[in-house]
Amino acid sequence: MGDASPTSPALARNLSWPHLIAMGVGAIVGTGILTLIGIGADKAGPAVLVSFLIAGFVCACAALCYAEMASTINTSGSAYGYTRTVLGQTIGWIIGWSLILEYSLVVSAVAVSWSGYAAPLLHDWLGVPMTLMNGPHAGGVANIPALVIIIAVAGLLLMGTSKSATFNMVLVAVKLSALALFVWFALPHFDTANLVPFSPYGFGSTMSDDGIERGIMAAAAIIFSAFYGFDAIATAGEETKNPKRDLPIGIMGSMVACALIYVVIALAALGSTPFLTFANSPEPLALILRLIEQPGAAHFLAVTAVITLPTVILAFFYGQSRVFFALSRDGLLPRALAKVSAKGAPVRITLFTVVVVGSISLFLPLGEIVALANAGTLVAFSAVALCMLILRVKKPDMPRGFRTPLAWVIGPVSIAGCLYLLVSLPQKTLMWFIIWNIVGIAVYFLYSRRSAARQPSA
């Protein structure tokens, strides 16, 4: 269940662990540190460092669970495939529906973040009106650059997985060099006075006087997306040359590398300037460099962000199209969408994804997009940890390419941490997430269940 049958559309196996680590780093190191650090600082002050640690710890536990499941059940579709195999079609659909929400909104959020860096450059260089580069929430008409970059990434994916993965590795290297340059210029300005008061809004998620929910956990619930991205690697199960070996290496390798990168950059950012100066900025790192009188480095970072943020879009767009592909191949979405090209790329599902995520990116603001995306992710992560524990009981001798250490500690901690972060999200976000799932359940019982029953068994 969830695996491709001999007669099902098949994806080409082109990826090895270096591609997967680059995909993970490309997905993880992006909006989270380039943009969300400003949103997190607005919610928690300098204590956003603790928010990063909490979110990173929960994500690391979830990553260990993902690594075991990815090396055990080699299927496209990530958490959807695992849940469908372990818990059945109905629960699998609910998790797949959550993944659709996660990936659609993350791709849209990163496209909006990319536009935040690109818009000033396009305005200065080409005279593009700002009203055409901001959504209605920011006084504009529509975020046209966000849609354009989504279309460009889709074109790259349609060239084939191997070529797009190699190109991604090059852009990841460029991105890391720009972040290293930021640390180089920011660290000499480090002043411990900028970290005082360390936690101005407290630990829990509470409503402040201006109607915004603040606190360490409120920030952690939002910047949680700064760490996920490794789950996009898990969607590559059918396109990896040696999935039992390469998937765990890709997942854990990218998590370790990104955790180190985040700690260094967050310390440099928070220590170099007072957090209020860059809180909620669409380009916080570039702004910090300008504040410490490094306009050349700020310009370079902004240009680099414009060039390299598409690596995040590519990784999540890839994941979204593969989740759609798995759902379509299983008959839960129209099966015609699962058609694969001669290059092994799901063309129709990629174009369908462009329509979905492009529409979102045109009009919605970054903060709201990320919060709702996190809700879907946290539910999916909890499901993967639960599936790992269930398989440990039901099939303890099942071959596993990777075994999560201290599984009966890591698994429950992952579930509890994800659920705590979920309830720490803004109430408005939770309301929309409930509505999304009500719609998903209706779609399942009105269409997907009957459609899947008419499909040939895998």
From TrEMBL:
Subcellular location: Membrane
InterPro entries named among the record's database cross-references: AA/rel_permease1
Coiled coil feature spans: none
Membrane-protein topology: Multi-pass membrane protein
TM ranges: 20-41, 47-69, 90-117, 137-158, 165-187, 216-237, 249-276, 296-319, 345-364, 370-393, 405-423, 429-447
Keyword Electron transport: no
UniProt keyword terms in alphabetical order: Membrane, Transmembrane, Transmembrane helix, Transport
Predominant location: membrane
Gene3D superfamilies, per database record: Amino acid/polyamine transporter I (1.20.1740.10)
Pfam families membership: AA_permease_2
Full protein name: Amino acid permease
Originating species: Brevundimonas terrae
Source species taxonomy: Bacteria, Pseudomonadati, Pseudomonadota, Alphaproteobacteria, Caulobacterales
